[in-house]
User: Fold this.
Amino acid sequence: MQKKQPILFGVILAIIGVILFSAKAVMVKIAYKFDISSEHLLLFRMLFSLPFYFVIATLNKPSNPEKIRKTDYLWIVFFGFVGYYLASYFDFLGLQYIKAGLERIILFVYPTLVIIISRIFLKDKITKQQLVAIITTYIGVVITFWQELQLDSTNVSLGVLLIFLSALTYATYLVGSGWLIPKFGAITFTSYAMIVSSLCIIIQYLVFDRGNLINYSSEIYVLAILMAFFSTIIPSYLISYAIARLGASNVAIIGSLGPISTIILAFFLLNESVSSLQIIGSAIVILGIYSITRNSKKK
Assistant:
């Protein structure tokens, strides 16, 4: 019972975090109706998030400072750069060349990448339960978005490569989280990494854009604030807490729920239709995620 409760609590935290992150896609679709670029919307999201991360980072110190080396701070800069900045940037570039359905299928190879990276660099064992869960959830994601696959655009191979790089960089971040969170603590690590990511986005704007940011409608700023609070700040800490309890590999598998929750939220908030094939695929993904919880209960 002592192990069961933390594991189940970690699963709950991961699921809530994934759902909140997925709500970002719905808010982005709503925001695009007010004629804003992806770069500016991403910038607003992180600008409104940054003060909270600074305050939380100031109020919380590393949990195990005696275990921290100077190079660990450089690793935080690296993982902050690749995790929430570079992964998002590759994803944005890739979507210019391929359809969203194919993007989601490619992007959700990251649970497999997390386990492979953890095995190579951290010598973590790959369990049968993890393999079954990965195969099950990936089959579910493919079925869910099969109808959306359209390969009629040019430079498909370039788009596929960019989305794969997005999956690889995000998987690298998750593995790094599992390694550094025990040293810094979930709150401190997340705050530091998100500050780095936010600063990267701001620097990109200052170097390559410098467009006007004050002439948008009030709805844009409201959506950006909601996105910052509910789809950035809160889920980023929830995911880190979940990684501390479950490990990066299991949290990555639960992350397969992301595209499914996006479909459900879009159905209720955007009145988008849901096909029977998507329902079947979603059920398979949930079954794969449940297998992680079920096998954890036996420990």
Summary: The radius of gyration is 19 Å. The first helix runs from residue 4 to 32. The chain has twelve helices and no strands. The chain has one domain: 4-297.
